[in-house]
Structures are given as C-alpha cells and as structure tokens.
C-alpha cells in the first residue's frame, strides 16, 4: 500500500474514534443534581423567613394600568440580531419568532385581556409558598373518556 492510502486509513480510523467518543459523551445519562430541600430561594434574607405551605385559592386580577404599560413596552422597537439561517432554536430563541410572539401578545392577546382573564379564571387557581418562593398553580382534572 502506498503512503497516501495508509494515511487515509489511519486518519479515517482516528476520525471515527473521535466521533464514537463524542457520541458516548453526549448520549450518556447525567446524574440528578443534589439540592438542599431546606435552602431558602426567596427574595431578601432567610433570617426571618417562616415557611407557610398553606394552599390558598387564587384569582387572576391584573390592573388595567399594568396591561397598558405592557402594551406600551411591547410597542417599543427591539434591537434584535438576525437569526442564523436554518438553525431554528438551536442557539437560543429565534429572533424572528420572538417578533411574531410579541406582535401576537400586543395586537391580539392583550386587546382581549378581559376575555382572556375571565377564561383563565374558569380554572381552579391556587398559591402556596415553598422555600421562600411564591408558587401559583392550576388544578385541572381531565374528563373521563367514554368507551
């Protein structure tokens, strides 16, 4: 065999070995992070914090001034970079899609905020406090399907 053929075989073998090793590294399962379940995550200091895990009913009510302010902020021009071609969301949120979402919120969703707020309040909303963080959640049970 000539030098060129041997060089190509060795180079191809090394390239294949690198690809296999990278695949193994990227596809392996990572261990779950170890978190302190008593750590304080809320705002301010944890010195005077007393945990209150009581689950309380919650109703969505947003002030109209806050909705007007949000509309005004969404109307301001954004300084966004053009997304990379053919990349979708692989390197972060696609700026063209972000423009579409902002336009939808500003021109469609927020214009009907009263209707949307009424729709959201049809569900059972609750809030509680866990490790200093205020948690808001919805409890919706699925309807049983008939067979």
From TrEMBL:
- What Gene Ontology biological process does one annotation of this record name? epoxide metabolic process
| Keyword field | Aromatic hydrocarbons catabolism, Hydrolase
Q: Which domain of life is it from?
A: Eukaryota
Keyword Iron present in the record's keywords: the answer is no
Q: Does this UniProt record's set of keywords contain Hydrolase? A: yes
State a single Pfam family of this protein.
EHN
**A GO molecular-function term, please?**
epoxide hydrolase activity
Membrane-crossing residues? none
The UniProt entry's sequence similarity note says:
Belongs to the peptidase S33 family.
Name of the protein = (Mediterranean fruit fly) hypothetical protein
């Amino acid at each position: 065999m000539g030098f060129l053929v041997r060089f190509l075989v060795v180079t191809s073998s090394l390239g294949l070995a690198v690809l296999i090793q990278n695949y193994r590294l990227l596809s392996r399962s990572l261990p779950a992070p170890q978190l302190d379940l008593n750590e304080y995550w809320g705002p301010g200091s944890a010195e005077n914090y007393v945990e209150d895990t009581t689950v309380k009913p919650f109703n969505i009510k947003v002030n109209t001034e806050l909705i007007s302010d949000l509309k005004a902020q969404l109307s301001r021009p954004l300084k966004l970079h053009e997304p990379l071609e053919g990349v979708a969301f692989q390197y972060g949120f696609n700026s063209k899609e972000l423009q579409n979402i902002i336009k939808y919120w500003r021109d469609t969703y927020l214009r009907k905020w009263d209707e949307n707020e009424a729709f959201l309040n049809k569900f059972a909303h609750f809030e509680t406090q866990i490790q200093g963080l205020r948690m808001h959640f919805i409890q919706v049970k699925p309807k049983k399907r008939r067979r």
